[in-house]
Specification:
Number of helices: 10
Bound molecules: manganese (II) ion
Number of strands: 15
Structural class: alpha+beta
Largest sheet: 6 strands, antiparallel
Helix content: 25-40%
Order of helices and strands: EEEHHEEEEEHHEEHHHEHEEEHEH
Oligomer: single chain
Strand content: 25-35%
Distance between the termini: 82 Å
């Protein structure tokens, strides 16, 4: 199968670093969008794609298994690195990968980067976003229109390197000559509608120039995040691949039933309030805070909120310190709502500080 590839990554207009990474190593193509404070995001996306780079799987039916296994290996490597280095704790990354195997593209996917197929001029999203807003849309609690520019659309529900067990979406797509496969990070799709992407892909025949135009358009629209796009053009297919006819993945679920406008508005309002509270790009899995767990000071993983019944946190470590006593000290009055931290390490230092202050105050009151 003859293919032609274009690729472009760009820091965008708002970020200090480019935490996206990409891999173009025929027959494997992948994008990764790293997340996590300090240098964590950078490290996570690069470790993940380094793991995939070593891919040397057999062609045929086993290739698919190997791709998913490699993503699982990437998960373990990112997780272990994060556990070994306090600065990197809580980092993670998305991965959207395609392996071109004869006439088929095997897709492996975790997170909110995307794979699209442009066929006969029509663009179709192949992957499902693993995001909170997508989940709410599926459950009928948010309309697809509300989800598109939702301030909290960056909250991912699944990422590589966050938990030991990982679900990897995988499916084959039968390729035809003339198909264009686009892999991209949310810095592109957050700025451009599917219609805008489709127009550029229809318009610009050269895959490299098409990637350049996608990135330029996303920057013109604001460039709020790092932007990465890989475009794989299928030029023709060899005879041998005719037999491997595999259908497209199932169509996206039908649009949710209409709920009352009041309910939708209320749901949207709650999500927006929480989003405004914690910032635009909140990765639940990469947030920490110090709060009150049954009267004790505790370190929580997540954000101190529950959105529409979804609890966005769990206790990572409890301490022997009394939350009631800590609350009485002026700097720690906020413990009831949760004192947010950038990392587990920072949360630990907050606890150390509380411990020091509590000790100080008890010395003061007794002595
Ligand atoms: Mn991104």
């Amino acid at each position: 199968m003859k293919i032609r590839v274009g690729v472009r990554t760009d820091i965008g207009r708002a970020r200090e670093r480019n935490e996206d990474a990409y891999l173009v190593r025929e027959p494997l193509f992948a994008v990764a969008d790293g997340m996590g404070g300090h240098r964590g995001g950078n490290v996570a996306s690069r470790i993940a794609l380094e793991t995939l780079r070593s891919f040397d799987g057999p062609p045929g039916p086993d290739a698919r298994k190997t791709l998913v296994e490699d993503i699982r290996t990437a998960n373990t490597r990112v997780l272990e690195r994060g556990e070994a280095d306090r600065d990197l704790r809580g980092m993670g990354t998305t991965i959207t990968a395609v392996l071109i195997d004869q006439g088929t593209a095997l897709v492996g996917h975790v997170g909110d980067s995307r794979a699209y197929l442009l066929r006969d001029g029509a663009l179709r999203q192949l992957t499902e976003d693993h995001t909170l807003v997508r989940q709410l849309v599926r459950e009928g609690r948010l309309s697809p229109e509300q989800a598109i520019r939702h301030p909290q659309r960056g909250v991912v529900t699944r990422a590589v390197g966050v938990e030991e067990h990982i679900d990897v979406d995988e499916f084959p797509v039968e390729l035809r000559p003339g198909d264009r496969l686009l892999l991209c990070t949310d810095g592109l799709t957050g700025m451009l509608s599917d219609e805008a992407i489709q127009e550029i892909l229809r318009d610009q025949e050269d895959p490299q120039l098409a990637c350049d135009r996608l990135v330029e358009a996303a920057n013109q629209a604001g460039g709020e995040d790092n932007i990465t796009a890989i475009l794989v053009d299928v030029l023709d297919r060899d005879e041998a691949t005719e037999a491997s006819a595999i259908s497209l993945p199932p169509a996206p679920p039908p649009a949710p039933k209409r709920r009352s406008i009041v309910l939708k508005a209320a749901a949207a309002a709650i999500v927006i309030i929480v989003a405004a509270w914690f910032g635009v790009r909140v990765y639940v899995n990469h947030q920490w805070y110090v709060g009150d767990s049954g009267g004790r000071v505790a370190i929580y993983h997540g954000v101190p909120a529950t959105i529409l019944g979804l609890k966005l946190h769990h206790v990572a470590r409890t301490t022997d310190l009394s939350a009631t006593e800590a609350r009485q000290l002026q700097p720690w009055a906020g413990i009831e709502e949760g004192i947010t931290a950038d990392s587990f390490g920072q949360a630990e230092s907050i606890v150390d500080q509380i411990r020091a202050d509590l000790t100080g105050s008890s010395i003061g009151s007794t002595g």
